Amino acid sequence: MTACLRLLLPLMLVLLVGVKAFAEEKSSTDRARDALAQQGEDESETAQLEEVFQAAEKRYSMLASGGKSLSYSFDYSYNSDSRIDLEVVNNVIRNLDVNPTATHSMTNSFSFAYGILNNVTLSTRVPISSRYDTTRELSVTDFGDISLGLRWQPFSYIPGRPTITVSSSLSTKTGVSPYEVNPNQRLSTGSGTYSVTTGINISKVLDPVVIFGSVSTGYSFEQNGLNQVRGGRVLTSVHNGQSFSLSGGFSYSLSYDTSLSISTNIGYSSETNLYFSDGTNAETQDSASASMNMSLGIRINPTTIINTSFGFGLTEDASDFNLGFSYPINIGAWTW
Question: Is residue 23 part of a domain?
Fold first, then answer.
């Protein structure tokens, strides 16, 4: 009996050591599996946060090769000012009147984007604008300036690192030009000139916050062949010059399906040169504008994110306030 115990004790010790080693190995494997699962969950949640953010800030977003998206947006802006009416007879002011004026602008836009490559996205925007001037009781509804855009991501996306995109756009003059109508009888819906804009956009996810910023510059081409009467002279050519824009802000995740964004935009436009048929010219002053914007992005189902926005001007040259709404469109057999 004693001999049997002497034989069994070493065997039991070996079994106990083996069971302990197996348990430790299993515990280590479980911890590694849990860590990988947690990492995958974090990356998925980060991707969801960035997707909600990019739905609101299109210039920071990219589509995969062959990907398509179609969206509708509505924008409203309100501008108020004071108009001074003077009547001068023999260099003497006979009548002076200051009238408040306000302009309501509403734009319905359809935007389409297509992924040419995984890092190149082509887009176009078709706006239909409605404007109403309360003082002169003028209104207009017509196409705005149709634009074409290109977004390029020079570096592959790496989780945890900033995302950089380069954007460029061409704005046409399909809207009603302010230089080709009688401003006392009709309002405009476009800029009246062709222009190009190029910018760099950077964003980074710092869960639960996405910080972003962009800088851009625009150039308007000279418009010739005009024949508009202005103050007793005939306008024949206009050159709007160059503009610069700087914006930045952050998007805070209220949940992984909801984000609130706050941003500031600062713009500067150089002077505009007007040339008349009698050989004279006039030059307007340069201008600077700034505005504050807030937007809320909400995922209402796995494939649909709606956005609402509100903003107000910080300077005299900016809109008093603006409202916005955007919604993706899903069409039948197409996979948008």
Answer: no
pLDDT of 219-230, one tens digit each? 999 999 998 888
> How do residues 176-191 score in pLDDT, each as one tens digit?
999 988 888 899 999 9
Report the alpha-carbon distance of residue 103 to residue 79 in Å, rounded: 5
Q: Which residues of the chain have pLDDT under 70?
A: 1-60, 82-100, 331-336
CATH of the domain at 276: 2.40.160.40
Interatomic CA distance for residues 46 and 64, integer angstroms:
18
Place of tokens 């001999």: 3
> Got the DSSP string for 289-302?
EEEEEEEEEEEEET
Measured CA distances, 214 to 76, 156, 192, 276, 326 (Å): 23, 19, 26, 37, 21
In the block, tokens 């010790």 appear at 13
* Burial grade of 58 (CB within 10 A; 0-12, 13-18, 19 or more): buried
Task: Spell out where the chain has E strands.
Answer: 68-89, 92-117, 120-133, 138-143, 147-152, 163-171, 195-206, 209-220, 228-230, 233-239, 241-255, 258-269, 273-276, 281-283, 287-301, 304-313, 321-328
Q: Going edge to edge, which strands form the sheet with 233-239?
A: 228-230, 233-239, 273-276, 281-283
Residue 5 included in any domain: no
At residue 202, the pLDDT reads 93
Measured CA to CA in angstroms, residue 193 lies from 219, 254, 270 at distances of 10, 42, 15
Say if pTM beats, i.e. exceeds, 0.85: no
User: Which residue range(s) make up the domain with 134?
Assistant: 33-328
CA pair distance 31, 172, nearest whole angstrom: 59
- Start-to-end CA distance of the chain, whole Å, equals 81
